[in-house]
Amino acid sequence: MALKYHMCLLGLIFLASLLTGSSGVDDTHVFISSGENVRLPCNNALHDCNSTTWIYNRFTHSAAVELIGLGIKKTDTERHERLSLGSDCSLNIKNVTKEDYGSYSCQQWMGLQGQQKQQGADARVFLHVLHVSSSSSQTQISAGHSVTLSCQLYSYSYAGVSCDVWIRSERIELFWVNQASVKKQTRSDSRYQISAPDHCLITLNTTLLNEDDNREWRCEVTQRDQVKTSVTYTVKSSAQDDTVSPVIPVHTTKSTTMRPAASTQGTLQKNELQPLCFTESSFVIT
């Protein structure tokens, strides 16, 4: 019981930190699907970007990686070819992967070369990546074979607080939705089996039929009933051999900024914090 209380308290401290930021600059939370391009805003930019530095952390205690230094892109990082600095000092990432999730901090440094001092506070952006994968590695899947689609939300881990805790407290839910955009609340039926090992992962298992040509399965992530991003997985059958082939997922993306005192749609207020360690996931089948 004491351990459960401690985890809940730790989660609340984590959420308060995310909402208020460490020094008055609002943190931004961006939800994106893998394969998309994303823009991370720099909310403390000065008159030009020569003072701008972008720092990346995947986990709280992971080593910080400098992506942009004083307006110049670093070329010694694995993903430097996918990065660029916008005219407004935003960080642009092409073809986002699930490994891109984490915390991005925009900093401003001024002064003579070698004597720069940081100006103001970090402007943090938390990037949450939704990714769908298939259990089959085959190019074509024959009708009659079983396939499992896994939809996972990759989010920054703070001080040991898991993605599961973050999702529970912020009323973030993962759904599988049918082609008519209907969300059913049962976990399975005669054709589809839905399971959720935790709140950050939801799977759909089905046996493919010939009638599944052009069938779409869409995974959505919502926060307080507002869709943040989604991934659609489509299969197409071949008339010659009655097989189906996975098609590159189609993405729909939104982002949101959480501000402590705001009351507009898509924002989260401090007084909206919910008790942790409860709230069941929702399950959707077609």
TrEMBL record:
InterPro entries: Ig-like_dom, Ig-like_dom_sf, Ig-like_fold, Ig_sub, Ig_V-set. GO terms for cellular component: external side of plasma membrane; membrane raft. Coiled coil: none annotated. Pfam families: V-set (PF07686). One of its GO terms (molecular function) is MHC class II protein binding. The keyword Signal applies. The keyword Chloroplast does not apply. One of its GO terms (biological process) is interleukin-15-mediated signaling pathway. Keywords: Signal. PROSITE patterns: IG_LIKE. Residues 1-24 form the signal peptide. Residues 32-107, 130-232 form the Ig-like domain. This is Ig-like domain-containing protein. It comes from Cyprinus carpio carpio.
